[in-house]
Amino acid sequence: MGIRQLGIVVGHRKEQIIDYFGNGNRWGLEITYIEQNDRLGIPHAIGMAQEFIGLDPFVVILGDNLFWDDLNEKMEEFISSGAEAAVGVQEVDDGRYYGIAIMEGDRIINIVEKPENPPSNVATVGLYFFASPAVFDIIKNQKPSARGELEIADTLMGVIRSGEELNPIRILKRWKDTGRKPELLDANKAILEEAGGNDVAKGVQVINSIIHSPCVIGSGCKISNSEIGPFVSIGKNCTMEGVKISNSIVCESSIIHFSEPIGNSIIGRKCRLLKSGSPILSVNIGDHSEIIEDDS
To answer: Can you give the pTM of this predicted structure?
Structure first.
C-alpha cells in the first residue's frame, strides 16, 4: 500500500508480537508500538494511536483479518472518493458475528453490531479508512456498550451523524476473520492452497514419514514414523513421533507422540501430547498445555 510508518497496538502477550516484528526493518517499515493496557474495544485502540497518527489520513487493519484483495486499490478508491471515512464490507452467510451494514443504494445509513437477527447480509470487515483526525473526537464522546467496551459500529455511526460520508469499500475476493477456531483453520488451509506444494525448512529431519502437500514445516523440527498433511502448518523446533495429523496448526516447540489421528486441531506453543489409546479426534489447546496418557 506504499505505507512505511506502521503503528501496532499491543497489550496482552505484547512480547511475542514485538519479538516477531522487531523494528520493521526487514519489511522496509518503521514500526511504533502503542501499548493498550486495558482492552476496551477497537475505538479505544484507535484512540491510543492519536499521537502516532497526528493529522495524517490513516488506515486501520485488524490484526486477525486476512485479505486477498489488493488493498492499495482500496486505499486509492477511498482517497479518490473524498469521503471522511470508509469501511470494508462483504456479504456473509451468517451475520450474527459481525457488524452489519444497512445500505441505501451505495451508501451506508446504519451499522448494527453482532445482531441476533441481522437486518442484512452485508458485514463490515476489519478494514477502516479515515481522512482526518476528526474521528478521535467521536471516540472521546463514545460510551461503552453493554459489553463494557467501545464499539467500532458506534464510531462509524458517529461519522454519519456528524453529517460526513461513510463509504462502503467492497471486498470482492476472499476475506477471513481468524478470531475463532474454524476460521483460523480455514485461513491456514487457504494460505497453504495458494502457496502450493510443501515448504520444509532447511535441516528439518524427516525419518520414515510421509508429507502430504500442502504443508509448511519450520526449522529445527524432527518428524519420524509419521504422516503429515494435507493442510498442516508446523512451527519451528517441534518433535513428532508416530503421528498422523491433517488440517491442523502446531505452534513452535511442541512435542507430539500420539497414536490416534489428529485433525482439525490447533496446538499451542510448547505443548506435549503423549498418548496411545482411545482417540481424541479434535483438540484446541493453548500454550504449555499437556495431554498425557495416565498409566495408573
So the answer is: 0.85
